[in-house]
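Reply to dn_fold:

You asked what the input looked like. This is it:
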Amino acid sequence: MIASFILGGPLAAAVIAAIGTTDAREVRGDVPWYGTVFNHASAIISVVLGGIAYEVLVLIGSSSPLSVELISFGASLIAAGVFFLANWLLATAAVTVRTAVPIRTLWAQDVGGVAANLIGLAPIAWLAAQTFQLPNGVGWWATPLFVVPLFTTRLAYARYVETRELFEQTITALSKAVDARDTYTRQHSYRVSHITEAMCRVMRLPEQEIEKIKWAGLLHDVGKIGIRDDILLKEGPLDKRERTLMNRHPVIGQDIVLQASQLKGEAPLIRAHHEWFNGSGYPDGIEALDIPLGARVLTIADAYEAMTSSRPYRKTPLTHEQAVDQLERFAGIQFDPDIVPILVNLDRSILDREPEPEDELKTMREQPDLEVPPEPSAQASGAASGGETDDTAKSRPALASDDVS
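and this is what came back:
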């Protein structure tokens, strides 16, 4: 398309864009008609804008002492930038409307991964156009040689998309492995990741940092795969030995994700998501700003989601108001006091629980639930309010806000 507006101007480029962007999925009817219209219209609009920019730049440069070839080359690079920018903006805007994913997220994740490669094709487009104009019919057979770098770039882009999709699917599968162990924590990791991402956007963190914290939220409890069922699913209070074993799950989680080089940035956040702001957390007892920022955000989101959910040791979840009271009460003790208000002020549509989706792991749970006696009222009261009974004082933390296991 870039070579076409160099050779024939915006109108020729529009024809090439309209025909040349036809996709096999469109022919098969896999793409809705409005999607097909948008795809072709965005290509035409982008290439026409690029073609107009090229002709204007060439006209302006014609009065300069520079050679025609040098002017044409410079104009083609700038015009290609206009073309790509328009095309990316239209595409990301459409995806944002359909998926509600912010434009800057799409730009960082999708465009950022291929922008350098695509912009690098602009000089090839100019060279292809010049080659096509070689005399004696040479250009007709020489120009198809440019298919090789174009095909290579297309293949690299397809591999980039496939690798990224595989990466995301692997992370999701790991988080669902924890769901398969414990029905009480079903969707917990997803909700923690969702709340964490919303907090990060309010904090205006860089997109790469947001993505790292979001993935850490999805995987923060993956270490519970290494915790025995009799401890993980125990309905009564944990004794000292059991609590010590349970407290190993952040380290186990770190060791698991470190096996994947792409998750090395998430590993420290997973390890530190039970550290306390005053240094009395685990596993390392670090405090305040020594705790990674992402882990401090994750700790708050994790505690809120756990408090507002049912647990084997606390069947009645706390209300939003009770959970917020816990967060504010222990700001500066367990939680970063500067970050707590960010969660508290989030829109309730982000914090409120959505209807449970269809169970994707139901084959893991096709067994009858065991009848269990109701918890003593004193114990239930202690779990909801953050107070201790004689039993819980020996095992679980005194604070409801730390009841996140």
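The radius of gyration is 28 Å.
Hope that clears it up.
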